[in-house]
Amino acid sequence: MRFFKIWPNVAGGIGERTVLDSSVHPPIVTKLHYEVEGWFGDVIVTTFPCFLVTEETQRALQKMGFSGATFADAEVTISEDCQEDQPGLELPHFVWLKVNGKAGQDDFGIAVPFRLVISERILDLLESLGIPFAIVEPFDNE
Fold this sequence. Notes:
The protein has one domain. It has three helices and 13 strands. The longest helix has 10 residues.
């Protein structure tokens, strides 16, 4: 199976209600608040060190079966700047994609230095759902 590094769109950042331990690297997040600064349709988004997917993507992943990640709830809000820049923006419901797999082995994994690695079948699914602003490159178990 082929694997790919993916840099999802950074649609926002860590919100003020996030709970994290920054004494370690990468920080350990126990409660995620994601504040959207601008969203243009990608079904997977990021801010270091977290990834989120739309609920539709979560359902599609669960239907196909996958390895290397779990889901958790996240609080997602829209920043004031985003409300001004994109008035009327309606976000889909996002869930936290908690990646715990081995890069190049599981469908989801993290490679050094904190790069998301996905299998070809996951890439195919994400592309079918929409990742217009993600950057994708082949992964070769560096």
